Amino acid sequence: MRWVEAGWDVLFLISGLPLWAGAMIMLSVWAQPGGQILRADDADTAVRFALSVVVVVLTALALAPFLTSWQRRRFRALRATEIHAIETPRVHRGQIRQALRSEALWRQALYHLIAGPVIGLGLVLLAVLGALAVFVAIALPQHALRMSGHYQHPYGEKFWGQVSYLLVAGTVAVFAPRLIRYLVRADEFAARRLLGPSETIVLARRVQSLSDSRAAAVEAADTERRRIERDLHDGAQQRLMSLAVHLGIARKTLRDVPPDAMAVIVDAHEQVKQAMAEIRNLVRGLHPAVLDDRGLDAALSGVAARSAVPVRLAVGATGPLSASVETVAYFVVSEALANVVKHSRASQASVEVAREADVLLVRVTDDGVGGADAHGGTGLTGLAHRVASVDGRLRLTSPTGGPTVLTAELPCGV
């Protein structure tokens, strides 16, 4: 089984040799002590070497996107490994400046020029050592038994020298499957790190994906709240209204009803009115219909008008806002004014709503006694979670003696 897996691994590595061929040839030429590029008998050697490096690097940058595309197909077809694509500039399209500044393109060029060819040379070296083991295994008995005295041995006439060659090559042959697997893993590791997006990009994409998912969840929840609000308003609330009207008519018009029966009618009428008030509060807590009908300014005007503490409201030009941001801003003001009435003993409050660039600022101030604590069970913890659901931030300043300032910063870029 190990050799079968090694066969597939060898096939995978061999499939990469054509894509690494140019760089492998260049590396082998540079590695030759007497190669033309490294000859030291010419005064222009350094200049020619530098120019050759520049040409090779530019060629690698130009071909990197195409070679990377083929490498992705290779990994997908032979290893079932997906190397995620990343947008890179093309040198041949006149984007040389962008290409030289592209980290992704440089990482791809590094793989095609160095990492991949080195792995390919490792495979070639394993093949050479394997062939050497076979050759020495055949030649050694002939040498030992002197079956062909005229045979010229390429490794010298010393018997133990050939034994050493056989041990080294045989050891490589025995461990060949494991060594090949290491080469495959090295290729996969290098490809993931150099051909695909960097860890920074992957993390940024993951954060963006989580942000989009959370925004979608918040939007879906807000849509569901609006649906429930409509159902309660158009369904249960209207039925209760009709029932209250009929009970009210019966309460005022019926005269010959026994006192016990009239008491039941009166009690039922009062309970229906209480149920309607509770549903109105519930609907207002789910999603105020005025937000959809008349916008944030009108909704906040209604909140300020219902407050038991006089409120000075100032709403600037907010521009287009998403439904989730409008809803959060509404509940920030509603909860803050409710806390002012319950806890602050204030004589006046103010609400300011303004947009600065892509941030909606909501500030609620009161002249009460201060000392408010965000963790004191005043509902601010839940409000902070609601603000965080749209990537916003909630800040509270409330020194003893006042004033208390609650500020919400809601991202609203569209």
From TrEMBL:
List the Pfam families. Answer: HATPase_c, HisKA_3, Sensor
Tell me what reaction this enzyme catalyses. ATP + protein L-histidine = ADP + protein N-phospho-L-histidine
TM annotation in the entry: 47-67, 110-139, 159-184
EC class (word) = transferase
Look up keyword Phosphoprotein and say if it applies: yes
Which InterPro entries does the record cross-reference, listed alphabetically? HATPase_C_sf (IPR036890), HATPase_dom (IPR003594), Put_sensor_dom (IPR025828), Sensor_HK_TwoCompSys (IPR050482), Sig_transdc_His_kin_sub3_dim/P (IPR011712)
Putative sensor domain location? 55-195
Q: Origin, by domain of life?
A: Bacteria
Residues of the Signal transduction histidine kinase subgroup 3 dimerisation and phosphoacceptor domain = 224-291
Signal peptide span: none
Enzyme Commission code(s) on record: 2.7.13.3
Q: Which SUPFAM superfamilies match?
A: ATPase domain of HSP90 chaperone/DNA topoisomerase II/histidine kinase (SSF55874)
Q: Which UniProt keywords apply?
A: ATP-binding, Kinase, Membrane, Nucleotide-binding, Phosphoprotein, Transferase, Transmembrane, Transmembrane helix, Two-component regulatory system
- Where is each Histidine kinase/HSP90-like ATPase domain found? 329-411
**PANTHER family associated with the record:** NITRATE/NITRITE SENSOR PROTEIN NARX-RELATED (PTHR24421), NITRATE_NITRITE SENSOR PROTEIN NARQ (PTHR24421:SF10)
Its name, as the record gives it, is: histidine kinase
Where does this protein come from, organism-wise?
Answer: Catenulispora subtropica
Native organism taxonomy: Bacteria, Bacillati, Actinomycetota, Actinomycetes, Catenulisporales
